[in-house]
Amino acid sequence: KGVPKKGKWEERWTENGRKLAGNRLGHVMTDEQMEVLRKQIAVYATICEQLVELHKSLTSQNDLAGVRLGNLYCDPLITSGAHKITGRQRWTPTPMQLQILERIFDQGIGTPSKQKIKEITNELSQHGQISETNVYNWFQNRRARSKRKQQAAPQNNGESEVETEVESLSPNHEKKTKPEEFHQPPHQQVLTSRTTDEDLCFQNTHPTTAIDPHTSKPEPMLP
Amino acid sequence: KGVPKKGKWEERWTENGRKLAGNRLGHVMTDEQMEVLRKQIAVYATICEQLVELHKSLTSQNDLAGVRLGNLYCDPLITSGAHKITGRQRWTPTPMQLQILERIFDQGIGTPSKQKIKEITNELSQHGQISETNVYNWFQNRRARSKRKQQAAPQNNGESEVETEVESLSPNHEKKTKPEEFHQPPHQQVLTSRTTDEDLCFQNTHPTTAIDPHTSKPEPMLP
DNA sequence: CCTGTATGAATGAAAG
DNA sequence: CTTTCATTCATACAGG
């Protein structure tokens, strides 16, 4: 199969449950820790990916080292799928919930505030699973998108750059006070030339060694 | 699609709910699971190391590779295909930077003094572009969100959790990070069965392959 | 299957 | 520090 079957990784994580009590065998991880872990693995995945790429480009000329790697790199899945370690499902409002949300939304106040959120959540939970975060996000998105749409529609100022949103390089939107541009340390200015091409990567380190051995050393991971 | 399309993100297993195991805040892992995790990370570390070595030995012969490297490598990173051709306006931490930041963060001191920021920024700049403002904001956000999450999810104090599996209660999560949010599943299934064949790679490779987590430095990671 | 589009969620940056 | 905004990521879902 062209598409390698994704591993059963997630199950290893979700398969948890039961026990623990005073059991010394159980470990409890907070979601935050899980997140950290996930990212750390992602770092390795990234490094491996890059190295593998490198390896491939090199072996096209020198295939000597291929063997070993062949074995080690046995799981393209984990590598490419490291991001997802834990499956994430996304909440989908039921028609009913959506209706209510919608009603509340244009019913006025666009800032539900914490307390309000709680209430709403509580009410909606009677129509299906939902959490405060969901409600929070919903309003957040609703407002943002409503705004954007509005801005895009009436816009006819001969600006061809009005444009949906693709690569709106000119953040001439209503934006804020800042002309935009991400901060850059005073020194090392040179790198700023990252025009449209994106580099954001490791090579920024030292041109000579794209991969710094140090970076691949496992560091102390969890607290 | 010659391009290493990784965006696939594995098949949709989120169909109709199902699964959804730990809707408790914490995840409980057995030693076995922890061990597996540890090993997998260790393997990653080892692979990276070996690849780095390989890379070094190869480039010593063909330094031309170094050049290409600089260009070739830029994008496939950032978890899950970052936009290919888009100039990014906002700073995005590289996995490496994130790892470091994260480490510093939970390393205790939640008070990134001006001086400290400078140091951190300097260190991180070795792994990519970054400015003090970025670091500052990062900590600011990190703290705020961490806090919010915690508040929203009062965890049972070391309470053992039987977690039979019913859990029909609606322990409204709320956090902000990964962990699964409940979906639609009015009813949940344990579904833990790792029915599918076999588990992927890594742990299998462990014994036979040349790499031995113990001998190689990758070791420390979990408390 | 593969592609495009709607939208839930994550997060850097800024305002309050 | 807390709340809000803007932008981007990833996925659920409808079409071909």
UniProtKB/TrEMBL annotation, chains A, B:
Its main location: nucleus. The chain holds residues 2 to 224 of 276 of the full protein. Residues 172-184 have a biased composition (Basic and acidic residues). Residues 84-149 form the Homeobox domain. The keyword Aminoacyl-tRNA synthetase does not apply. It comes from the Eukaryota. It is found in: Nucleus. Residues 86-150 bind DNA. Residues 142-191 are annotated as: Disordered. This is Homeobox domain-containing protein. The keyword Nucleus applies. It comes from Rehmannia glutinosa (Chinese foxglove). Keywords: DNA-binding, Homeobox, Nucleus.
